[in-house]
Structures are given as C-alpha cells and as structure tokens.
Design brief:
Structural class: alpha/beta
Keywords: Monooxygenase, Oxidoreductase
Distance between the termini: 29 Å
Strand order of the largest sheet: 5-4-13-14-15-12-16
CATH topology of one domain: FAD/NAD(P)-binding domain
Strand content: 25-35%
InterPro entries: FAD-bd, FAD/NAD-bd_sf, FAD_aromatic-hydroxylase
CATH class of one domain: Alpha Beta
GO molecular function, one term: monooxygenase activity
Radius of gyration: 21 Å
Number of strands: 18
Pfam families: FAD_binding_3
Protein name: FAD-dependent monooxygenase
Length: about 400
C-alpha cells in the first residue's frame, strides 16, 4: 500500500513533532510555514512530570533538551523597593526542565529536515475535500492534493478558519495583554527571576542563557488586539501607556523595549472548539486547544502529536476513526490545562490591591514548609493527568 501523503501547516512545535513520528514509519510529509524562515523566538517553555518526560524520551530528545536547558532557579515576587515578598520554587515556573522555545524549534527542525519537505514563505488559501483526498490551493505553490491535512498553525490558525469559517468565535479573551522580549541584563540576574506587580499590570524578568540578557514579560489588562496592533511599535506604545508611573525598575525596562529585536505582542486568550476535525482535516496543538500563556502549550502540542501519530499509524485507512480516538484521548487532558491561560493574567497582574495582597498571601502559604508537598502536586497535577498510550512507533532520526 502506498503510504499516505500528509500536509502539515505550521513549522513550530506541534507540526514537526507529528512529522517526525509519521516519517519515522515511512509516511510522506510536507510542512508549509507562512514565515520565510524558522521562527526561533519566544519565551521559555517547560516540561514537568512523567507524561512529558516519557514522550521526550520516546522522541530521543530528553538528553538534547537537558543540554539546552535554561537552569532557571527560583523566581521571587518583589515589592517596589525590590524586597522579596515570596520565593516561588523552580518547579512552579520552569518545571522539571526548561529551555527556550527557539532552541526546541531548531532541535525539531534539525531532527526532521532530511525526512520532511519544508516549504517556507507560503500558506494554504483553500481546502476542498474530494473522495481521493484534499485539494489544497496555496498563496505561491501550485495546487496539490494530499491524503490528509493537519492544522498545526497556532492560536489564530488559518487552517481552522478555512475549515470552520473565518467568523468562528472560538478564541476567548481573558482580559489581559502580554508583551515579551529580550533585554540587556541591567538587573544582574543569574539563573533566577523576579516578578513585580501593581493592580492591573505586572512585569516578569528572568535570566537567559546569555548572562548579558534577560527575558522580560509585561502583562497588563486590556481588550483583544485589533487587526493592526501586533507590531513591535504597537507593543511599545501599549506597554508605555499601561506602565506609565509604575514603580520599581519598570521605567528602565519599558525604555529598553524600544530597542528589542524580538518583541512579541498578543492578547491572553484560549481556543474552545466543539470538535478538532472535519473530514480529512484535523487540528493539532494551539490550533485545537491552545492558550496564549500558562496553558502548557508546548508539552501539550508534543503529547498531542504523539497521540495523533499513534492513532493514524494504527488506522492508516480510516482517518475518521483515528481522528475520533485522538480527540477522545486529548480533549479531557487539554481542556483542564486551559485553566492556566484563564488564570495567568491574574497571577502576574491582579486587578486590585486586595487581589494583589491575597495573591501574595496565598503563595506565601503554599510555599511554606508544611504545604510544599501539596503545592508540588498542585503545579504538576494537570500535566500528569493522562494515561499515555504506547504506539511503538519510532521518531525520525537524522542521517549519520
């Protein structure tokens, strides 16, 4: 039997993860990515618990990820004078192992580039299902037929829009905006982070691989982003307005934002869909269940890719059954993780002074010696609440 030809849209985390499992079993995979090159920016991502670790080990990536880990330690909630209010354990913010998202993207790309056809600078414009497959039209490439299409193209998935309609109201806004960037390490941080909050606004600064740099994250209340608000200039204007008059070192961080070369700007929200697939097209990762921040997006994408690959390999001639089993497994796991995206804005930037006081008191209590075991279970529960199947497949390996 001729092995299926699968189109995956999105060359971030979910797409190459799925591609590695499928090509490892001889399937033909094409990945199309709108960006002209691999996107290597973004915040740090973390993995925690045995489910995440098992998937990484089966992919042969556990050691490689450890070699690239940030080694970030504790993070501290501070007041306007820089005085420590609460010490947050490393497990809460950076899991068992943390690395920069760009490092993981590069690692997955290197593992799959020889077995996968990558097309950068292009995107699908139409999907038309036929008895023989899915006819796909592209912005630049000639139309082509594929056996299956996977939308792994993020929160604002183009494939999801083509599949369910552009007006599908599935991205729920949670009342906050977020701006991330890399800045000079003017605070002298080393393998640690600090979080300063005022009502409705907060900034997190964490050390990076390079001791000369830090990752900064500005979180503040605000409406969903308009169609032309995602530019670095818009991000600078929004942060400048939101943090005007803020205390601590905030002014210096805001001023540095205008010189940043990797500014990221988004509204905090999460995707809610009644189904993950339709016909021969299925959504994976953030396109299906994602949250902007705090929703375990990266590990869920990699677990989801593993599960989807297993179901497709088990039923290569019945994609409908494979997609149905994939959703039945992943939905109960992914949906509770979205609670993190709902709460993350309120953690970094409680809306009121009483809310800020209560946050500090809560985490001071949870991080106390009597409750440290309870707290550990709380921060790992969502990640561990899954029975991982064993599909026995092999992940793509680069040629020697």
């Amino acid at each position: 039997m001729t092995q299926p030809h699968v189109l995956i849209v999105g060359a971030g985390i979910a797409g190459p993860s799925l591609a590695g499992w499928l090509t490892g079993q001889g399937w033909r995979v094409t990945i199309v990515e709108r960006a002209r090159s691999l996107r290597t920016g973004g915040q740090a991502v973390d993995f925690r618990g045995p489910v995440h670790r098992t998937v990484l080990e089966r992919m042969g990536l556990w050691e490689a990820i450890h070699e690239r880990r940030t080694r970030l330690g504790k993070q501290t909630l501070i007041d306007a004078s820089g005085r420590a209010l609460v010490e947050l354990p490393a497990l809460m913010m950076s899991g068992d192992v943390e690395l920069h998202r760009g490092d993981l993207c590069q690692l997955l790309f290197e593992r799959t580039r020889e077995s996968v056809e990558y097309r950068f600078g292009d995107a699908p414009t139409a999907l038309c299902e036929t008895p023989a497959g899915v006819e796909v039209e592209f912005e630049h490439h000639a139309p082509q037929r594929f056996d299956l299409v996977v939308g792994a193209d993020g929160l604002r998935s183009n494939v999801r829009s083509l599949l369910f309609g552009k007006d599908t109201d599935c991205l729920k806004h949670h009342g906050y905006r977020v701006v991330g960037c890399t800045l000079p390490n003017a605070l002298g941080l080393k393998q640690r982070g600090v979080i300063y909050s005022e009502p409705g606004r907060g900034v997190s600064v964490t050390s990076a691989h390079d001791e000369e740099q830090v990752r900064a994250l500005f979180v503040f209340t605000g409406a969903p982003l308009g169609p032309h608000e995602r530019s670095p200039a818009s991000a600078c204007d929004a942060v400048s307005a939101a943090f005007a008059g803020a205390g601590w070192e905030t002014r210096r961080l805001v001023d540095g934002l205008r010189e940043a070369e990797d500014t990221y700007f988004d509204a905090i929200g999460s995707v809610h869909l009644s189904r993950y697939s339709q016909g021969r097209v299925v959504l994976l990762g953030d396109a299906a269940w994602g949250g902007t921040l705090g929703g375990q997006g990266t590990p869920l994408a990699m677990v989801g890719a593993y599960v989807l690959a297993g179901e497709l390999l088990a039923s290569p001639e019945s994609h409908a059954d494979a997609f149905s089993r994939f959703e039945a497994r992943m939905r109960p796991y992914a949906t509770p993780a979205q609670d993190g995206a709902k709460r993350v804005g309120g953690f970094f930037a409680p809306r009121s002074r009483p809310g800020l006081f209560l946050r500090n008191q809560l985490y001071r209590m949870l991080t106390s010696k009597p409750l440290e075991r309870v707290f550990e279970k709380l921060v790992t529960h969502a990640a561990n609440a899954f029975e991982l199947p064993d599909h026995g497949g092999g992940f793509a390996t680069p040629r020697a």
